[in-house]
Amino acid sequence: xxxxxxxxxxxTPIGRRGGGLAGVHPVDLSAHVLRALSERTGFxxxxxxxxxxxxxxxxxxxxxxxxxNAVLAAGWPEAVPGTTIDRQCGSSQQALHFAAATVxxxxxxxxxxxxxxxxxxxxxxxxxxxxxPYGETLRTRYGVxxxxxxxxAEMVAERWGFSxxxxxxxxxxxxxxxxxxxxxxxxxAEIEPLAGVKLDEGIRRDTTxxxxxxxxxxxxxxxxxxxGTASQISDGAAALAVTTSEWAAAHxxxxxxxxxxxxxxxxxxxxxxxAPIPATAKVLARAGLRIDDIGxxxxxxxxxxxxxxxxxxxxxxxARMNPRGGAIALGHPLGASGxxxxxTMLHHMRQSGLRFGLQTMCEGAGMANATIVEAL
Length: 376
What we know:
Elements: E1 5-11, E2 15-16, H1 26-41, E3 50-54, H2 66-73, E4 82-85, H3 91-105, E5 110-118, H4 136-142, H5 149-160, H6 164-183, H7 209-213, E6 234-243, H8 245-250, E7 257-266, H9 276-287, E8 296-299, H10 305-314, H11 327-330, H12 334-352, E9 356-363, E10 367-375
Parallel strand pairs: 3-4, 3-5, 8-9
Antiparallel strand pairs: 1-6, 1-7, 2-6, 5-6, 7-10, 9-10
Helix pairs in contact: 1-2, 3-12, 5-10, 9-10
């Protein structure tokens, strides 16, 4: 029976909005990690059957199928195709799911999954600017004029009873964990430097609870969500090479992990951010595992209450969640984040000798992907 294994994982450093990667076209960001992936992993780009590339704002410099444009910019053979996927924040995690399904089904032997987002050059929301993406029927069903993740984060904080202080403390812990990991060189093996940038730029080493407490709450007067307890607007790209154990062995490639289970789930689109909870239950059931069987959990820090609510509902060990920080500290380049998080988790598992890892992330319209990988 065919399986799906990840044989390579690499990412750019994550640039702050207007930071060191702001001058790099998103096609070139993508091409950079494609080249690095093939060089580090040792596969011939001519063997790639498809490139599945996540990107959320598919307009302007990220339009016209950036997945295919990245292949050509990387200098790979013209015979290598590429496509672009939008599952909102989970776009490149969904790309991994599609890649795994494709090789397991026998439609391909080697697929590259990943994604990109240059939020400096193509601002968030650009693809819907000046348009109505919902329509009257959808708005009438839910009784809202629009669906807003910041408002949803306020709703999550209220529903689970998280105080402003608890959210600020979580954000501070994310920066502390990321700074510790960066100082220990734990990100070095997964990053391919670019444009003179070698390190993730978003980590705020000087932040304090006092500074966080002084930030405004833009989504609700007297609310609990601030810029400090939200993921950062960022630039970056990441890529994963997916094949079968048999093909990897035949071509001298060493698998990092097997895709053990992969699911998608959905929940209330008004609160938006709660689907990682049912997605986790679903993926554990499909894998035949319990939450305590998992050595590390990566739960995307879109907003601080998201991973906190996930912890409350799953009963997971806080010490195993986002051990190297998350999007609050590292940043959240939308279309790249799924592959970035998987890349970080795979390297952590390898360096720490862990067998199972679970990744999940909330997505626009109330969806979430969840993936369990098993180290090999």
